[in-house]
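Format notes (please read before filing issues)

Several people have asked whether sequences and structure tokens are stored in separate files. They are not. Every record keeps both together, in the order shown below: the sequence lines, then the token lines. Line labels are part of the format and must not be stripped during preprocessing.
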Amino acid sequence: MTKSPLQAARGQYSPKLPLALQGAVKVVLGEKTQSVSDQEAVQELFPHTYGLPKLTFEATTEEVQGKPVNVGVILSGGQAPGGHNVIAGIFDGIKAIHAESRLYGFLMGPDGLVQHNYKELTADIIDQYRNTGGFDIIGSGRTKLEEVEQYNKGLEVLKQLNISALVIIGGDDSNTNAAVLAEYYKSINAPVQVIGCPKTIDGDLKNEQIETSFGFDTATKVYGEVIGNIQRDCNSARKYWHFIKLMGRSASHIALECALQVQPNIAIISEEVEAKGMSLDDVVTYIASIVAKRSAKGEHFGTVLIPEGLIEFIPAMKKLIAELNDFLAHHEEDFRAVAADEQRNYIISHLSKDNSELYASLPATVARQLTLDRDPHGNVQVSLIETEKLLAEMVGTKLAQWKSEGKFAGKFSALTHFFGYEGRCAMPSNFDADYCYALGRTASCLINSGVTGYMSSVQNLTAPASEWIAGGIPTTMMMNMERRHGMMKPVIQKALVRLEGNPFRYFVGQRDEWAENTCYVYPGPIQYFGTPELCDQPTLTLKLEQSKW
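Then the structure lines:
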């Protein structure tokens, strides 16, 4: 395998570990737990794994030789920087328990378990992937484990390989599936532990116990570098407004963290838009007013950060999409029979007054996408909407209207960007390399403790890595009941941006100055070698949440 000089150097990096994980550990039991809400309903669905205590690992001088253990690992869902280090941490951890322990990777996500596609991960393989980005060591996939037939099919190969523990590395949905699998195996007395690890660059899998999901640190630093480069170009050419959409459909954590890093002129936070009941025109007017203020000062340039899922948070757009979904579900054949150049007018004439007016105001490309590109369930694929182009075009239209009314005399020229996949497989930052390795080592300790239905947890993350606190959190503790596909189901509660939280409050306190003035920060590339102040810093979101910045 040919490696770049940086790849070769990173392969030699030794992740830092909490003191408690640097030798033999003992388990400290905490209080019993309950779900965040809907306690009776969640307990009824998880009678064997509900109410378990929190676990913390502490260093001990008592050396106990463990037994060999065979472990399976699955990478589930979208990629996030650091996944390979979680696997390396599991491998090193189970080898520390007993040298004859073995690790098997199921290929291309949960489907590998169901289809019995796997490979043994030996030291030679693991060493090629330490501190690297991506999930290519075994691949990932989005198959959901939610059917008894899948659980039983997976159990066949687990028995065949004598695997007694399965680690599922994924986001909120994947870890919900892991909890259901743990409950099922426990209910039939299958000798298989199921452990989860918190992964997602979106940052929406977090709570008091899971301070951050892995990959968020690296991804936002990658985006921060590129946005900073654009802002320097923007401040040099002084003639373009850059509309930048950032990955993160369900929450705006990425957009907020990047805003804290680079201090753009505008950053839209979806949760605030929803809380204020803002319309699409309100958002457009807000952006246009800042463009006009800067233009009046002779500054015809700027940056706008936009969360990927913004459209779904605008109440009026939600209603429009819901009515479109319902209408097309019942009139799909009639709609397709209309000539292409008349389809827009056809839709306008069949919607309620408010939705008709909103639909008519949308650019033709977006209006067409809302009616044509649908998922297998018949719903609009909102994540495919080019929101950055929508807003750039609508702001241009608004400013042209103001110019005709004598309210705007400046210039406006827009460029659009979408940053998403660029950050998902980046070489992990020191923080993520350390954090992920610690999560993997913690997972091995949970396996050695004999528990199931837990998620690996590492806390106190704004402190040096040696002071991090490793333990396990019962996955049911993070659950509530939500309606999914017309049924109430137990799911891990998504963490949205808290409008009363320190990161958002700090942003609100600064954004007016950032809007009117050019206060850009240029983070530059991730630094892997140097002083801790340069290389090991966590996100500003994490620092603000823990009042460390």
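For reference, the curators noted about this record: The chain has 22 helices and 15 strands. The first strand starts at residue 25 and ends at 32.
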